[in-house]
Design a protein that fits this description.
This protein has about 280 residues and is an alpha/beta fold. The protein contains 12 helices and 8 strands. Strand 3, helix 5 (about 95-100) and strand 4 (about 105-110) form a beta-alpha-beta unit.
């Protein structure tokens, strides 16, 4: 089964063609220190054995201007698709959505917290966003949620109101695990499995934490597979945000899921991506 990365980033050093306008007003450290072109990403993918990628727009570099990812998708449409970001509360959000769909978008991402916006935002459940959610459902475009576990109650509201919208939780919503089995601290996260529209994304943030505490990869990820099912779990590298080569990042993820049977690994490292995104077959 081909390996598909559903969470790499790209940043161009050409700031004249692709001006910086980071959300929060301050560019993320990783994007300033490790600008990575799509050509560089391709080389990393070839070295790691990653066949295709759903490139996630770098909000902490470009805000809502998805031009660089769109240009990358246009240049290498055989291997790339794009996950874009827009201001979902804007009056013209649906029209903007359609514009980026015409430029290779096959997924959306809402950046509700992160390195340049540390607090968990609540705006994604504002009624002003409802036209966006309705359109995402109508167009069958999955929506990644960059969020913390604190945002889960509002996410439930959105999924209850829009049951046809496919949701992907970036970085497992940073679910806590240090307490170890049975992982009561992550109970709210695991309870989300009842929403069949929801998928989860595993990245180095989950695979290589600073400390596992009382947890172990095989018990935490084992519960993840048992609870959600491998067909609702996808792997993303978070490269180059996460340190290391793409080969090193993939190897660590493979090791973390080595307990799983081959069929489950095939879903996590490739087949789930194909159910979520419009990724070229060849």
């Amino acid at each position: 089964m081909s390996v598909i990365d559903i969470h790499p980033h790209i940043v161009s050093p050409d700031t004249k063609r692709y001006p910086l306008a980071p959300l929060g007003g301050t560019q993320s450290t990783w994007s300033s220190e490790r600008p990575t072109t799509y050509q560089m990403l391709l080389k990393e993918m070839d070295a790691a054995g990653v066949d295709k990628a759903a490139i996630v727009h770098s909000s902490t570099a470009y805000g809502y201007d998805n031009s660089y990812v769109a240009d990358a998708v246009a240049a290498v449409s055989s291997r790339f698709t794009g996950v874009y970001s827009i201001d979902v509360r804007a009056p013209d959000a649906v029209r903007t959505f359609d514009y980026w769909l015409s430029r290779g978008c096959s997924g959306m991402r809402l950046f509700t917290t992160g390195s340049t916006l540390p607090d968990q935002a609540t705006w994604f459940a504002d009624p002003k966003t409802y036209p966006f959610w309705e359109h995402a459902a109508a167009k069958n475009i999955p929506v990644c949620m960059q969020m913390k576990q604190q945002g889960i109650p509002l996410l439930r509201q959105i999924m209850d109101r829009f049951p046809k919208v496919t949701i992907i939780l970036d970085h497992l919503a940073r679910a806590p695990f240090a307490d170890g089995p049975p992982y009561r601290a992550a109970a709210d996260f695991f309870e989300l499995a009842r929403y069949k529209q929801l998928y989860v994304k595993v990245t180095p943030i989950n695979v290589t934490p600073k400390s596992w505490g009382k947890a172990m990869p095989e018990t935490f990820f084992g519960k993840l597979v048992d609870t959600f099912g491998a067909s609702r779990i996808g792997w993303g590298s978070n490269f180059p945000n996460s340190a290391g080569t793409l080969t090193e990042i993939l190897t660590a993820a493979r090791d973390a899921f080595s307990f799983a049977n081959q069929s489950d690994q095939d879903w996590i490292f490739g087949k789930t991506a194909l159910t979520l995104y419009r990724i070229p077959a060849k």
